[in-house]
Structure formats: structure tokens, C-alpha cells
Amino acid sequence: MASMQADYEGGVSYSWEQSMKRTWESVKEDSEGNIMTINNDQERSKRAKLQRLTQSVRRGLIRYMMVFLDCSVSAKDTDYRPSRLEVMKSTAQKFVLEYFDQNPISQLSVAVTRDRIAEKLTDLSGNSKSHIQAIGGLLRTEGSASLQNVLLLAMATLRDIPDYGCREIVIVYSSLATCDPGDIFKVIEEVRKMKIRCNVICLSAEIYICRKLAELTKGTFTLALDTLHLNELLLRHTTPPPEAKSSSSQFTDFVYMGFPSRHFDPVPLFAFEARRVTVASTSYVCPRCGARVTEIPSQCAVCSLQLNSSSHIARSHHHLFPVDNFTECTKNLETKTANSASCYGCLFRFTSDSMRMKCPKCTNLFCVECDIFIHDSLHNCPGCSTNLT
Known about the structure:
Elements (H helix, E strand, L loop, with lengths): L1 H8 L17 E3 L5 E3 L3 H10 L12 E8 L13 H19 L4 E8 L2 E4 L7 H9 L10 H12 L7 E8 L10 H10 L2 E7 L5 H9 L4 E3 L3 H9 L21 E2 L2 E13 L2 E10 L6 E2 L4 E2 L6 E2 L2 H6 L11 E3 L26 E3 L6 E2 L1 H11 L3 H7 L1
Parallel strand pairs: 3-4, 3-6, 6-7, 7-8, 9-14
Antiparallel strand pairs: 1-2, 4-5, 10-11, 11-12, 13-14, 15-16, 16-17
Helix pairs in contact: 3-4, 3-8, 5-6
């Protein structure tokens, strides 16, 4: 009992207690007795910079990714509240939205592994609604997971992807073993020859075959500690990875794209939603064959032309030219700008304990919230853009 009391006083807690939000610990009183929250701006800024890429490197902007969820019996475990399956579903749905926001001209497919097989839920498409709906309908968990069948399904799906496309798979693995019908190392070698980058996120423990798969295919292997960490690890894959060094000569192909026109029909007409035919009153008409699709970006189901809009292509280039990290300024820093007492982005007036971030190019000051928003969502400095005009 004495040791338990010592552990509690020392801040040691169980793993299930780490997900609790101790809001009462972030409240304190000032000298006048007013309630105020503890300033965690410095920790938030440092944590946001850890995974931020600010170097201009060669990346694949047109990505073809498959997301595999482990729906074996291990997904019923409740070490992740309320269960591993529910946590995987919620984080995967957030990932789909963020993936298409950061990669508007890329495509995605969702699949699961259970009962020693791999099953594809959605085809490669840019329709985020169909992916989210398929993930939300996952209820059944049974049998064992099979990494080999996952790789075989990924090879069959990504085999016809053109050379300019970046082939990737992300596996959220919950099991401690894999039940395979043959030699998985031969399949991994075929995956490596097809230049498919495999990324694995384990929920239970580090597994040798999962780490080996990621290393041989030049992917990443990570181990989630809790729900928040799993969400953070999965969102890392929204940024296109740098292209691997290759001894072969680099060449560039022309990518044929169509810019369809949007039509509003008085009566609903047949249109393609990925490869499925549906009825819609608003559709986009392919400029090559005249087929109708419900959403863009997508691929024409008739002539296989990539359909995009100019805004989607413009938004995809921010990965090639990232915004430089802002530097932290001291509280008593003297600046030449007349509005240095407030944030240049949101006009928030700095207080004595506010943290100021300065752009190294335009020297304007920003708060931590604007700093994170500029680097993670906007991808353009407002001060630098104003100076250009």
C-alpha cells in the first residue's frame, strides 16, 4: 500500500489513465486570485516542429495508397477504449479527410484483413465519402490476420499504376502474429521490385516481420502507445514521402489530365461514382468521352482519363515548397513593425506571457495558433504573400 501511494504521488499512472484529460491540473490563480490556464505554447510549438518538413525535396504528388485495417479477433481487445476496432475506425476516418485535403489529386483504397484473408472494401478513387462510409460499416472481427494476403492484394491493385504514381500501403496492425499460406519473404521481394512503399503501425507490440517489411520496402515502422499517438502516427502519412534514391536515370512523363465542366441537370441522370453507377443531379462531364462522374478528382470509368480541377493541382504543390519554420522571439524584442503588439494573422493582442513567433523572411510576428495553422493547413505565410503584392 505504501508503494502504491508513493507511485501515485510521483505521478505514475496506469496506461488506461493516460487517456483521461486532467483539466483541473491546467488551472491556477494569478496574484489577484483570478483563474487562469497554464501557458503550454512553447511545448505545442516544439511538438509541431518535430515532424515538420521544411526542405524542398523531390516528392511524388500523385499518390496511390491502400489503407489496411486489422479486423482479426485481436481488434476486440479493450486496451484502447472502447476497443481497438473503434479506435482504428475513428482514426482512419480522420486520416481519409486529411489525406484528400493535403493530396487532392491522389487516390485511396480501403481494405481489411481477417479470417486469414485480405478483402478490399473500396476501389482506388478520390471519393472520400465512399471510403468513410465503408470504414464506418466495419463491425465484424474474426479469425487471424495475414500479412502475405495483404501484400498480394496490394500488388494486384497497384500493378497497373503508371510510373509517375507513387505506390504506398499503410497497415494498421493489431495482431501479434500472421497466418500466411506460403513464404512471405518471396512476396516481400516482389513488393520491393514493384516499388511499393509499405508502412506499418502496430497497436500491440513490435513484431519482427512488420519491421522487416517496412525496412525492405523503404517504408516506416511505428508502434502506437495510445489513441492520441495512433492518430498522430497515421496523420504523418498525409505528407508525400521523399522519393527514394535510385541508380536508374530520372525521367519525366507527360500526365494526361482532363478538366471537366460541371453540369446542373433539372432531372437526375446516371453518373459514375468511382466504378459504380449511380443517379445524381449534379455531375462533371469528361472532356474526352462525355461520361459523367459525381465528384472530382477521379478517374473516368470509360476512358481512364484523370479528371481534376486547376485548384486541386495548385494545392498539391505546397509540399514541394514548404514554409520555413518560424523562430521564437523574446518578450522584450524590439521590432520595426508598428503592429508588433498583436499577431499579424489573427490580430490577437500579445500579453506579457504570450509566445511570439517570427517569420524569417517578412519578420512579422505570429501567435502559436497561427504558426501551426500556417505550416499545417495554409502552407503560405500571409506576411510574405502581402509583400509580394
